[in-house]
């Protein structure tokens, strides 16, 4: 990779119409928040103005300030940024929107997998919504209870729609309607209102998060290794009321410290997901304006963090139902291959499948993509049994980007 990094995105009104002429403010996600819950004013990295189609872009300087470079170095060459808009509707209501983007700042001989992946990311489209929450919302203590992941991939899409922290139906919920007033087509005043943003940690906790899986059916064994250069991309959940959440944007976590976890020689007739403990923060974003003070929220992954007395990793949901004759017959024939006796196949590049409910944090389901690299792999090894060993990719050819290798 070469040249300065550019981050991009699109902001719209609630009805999908472009938000033109709006100021987008970029701040670093990894700026340290005090452990005691006190607030900080985020450092402004830069600003951008949305074009007529709502798109915006910002090119970082080739030489970053030392603090930003440190954040990027600690995250494997990736600078994670929060892109925020806040403006005032004609009636004084605050309209806000938040996106999360990655800047791949490692270039030349220092280029990393994470930096290259960040530069290839597709820009997000984020809608603005009214923010009228004037009272800080604190997650219930009950939501700190660790939750198991779901083995059902049909939930992948649902994590990106609105969800409620208490599991209640969100049917009929509209983030654009407040006290009977629909703000979906309301255009905010152009320019930056005289408001002062700040943020602080409401709660933080470690949750075991699904980052991959291994499969072994007839006369095979599975292995999986995950090096916490953390080649993974998380969906970040945001909320304007602390109760209804959706995924807006994504950030990468790629720690430069090498702690490898995994499993080996599991099988035959074995398939499970694999989880590691990640520290998450529930962050309150407060905006103080002359007319009122409001709050929005985000749930952000921070780092690989083993809780006191906790496991360095653990097995998640059983996914053996994805292997065997029936899934094989239902698979895409172009993705199938034969594994010869006493040989193995390994994924060491590309992305795994999206885990729509990789973890449930403070009552909110978060999605995750894992990127395979030299120090993170899934492996399946065949024994010397008499029957043929068949394997296939979840989303592509074994020789391409299979995502996950299934077994029969």
Structural class: mainly beta
Report Rg: 22 Å
- The succession of helices and strands, N to C, reads EEEEHEEHEEEEEEEEEEEEEHEEEEEEEE
Strand content: over 45%
Oligomer: single chain
Instruction: Characterize the largest beta sheet: strand count, sense, and whether it forms a barrel.
Output: 10 strands, antiparallel
Note poorly predicted spans. Answer: none
Count helical runs: 3
Total strands: the figure is 27
Whole-number total of structural domains: 1
Mean pLDDT: 89
Question: What general outline do the C-alpha atoms trace?
Answer: globular
* First-residue to last-residue Cα separation: 40 Å
What proportion of the residues is helical, as a percent range? under 10%
Gist of the model:
The chain is mainly beta and 408 residues long.
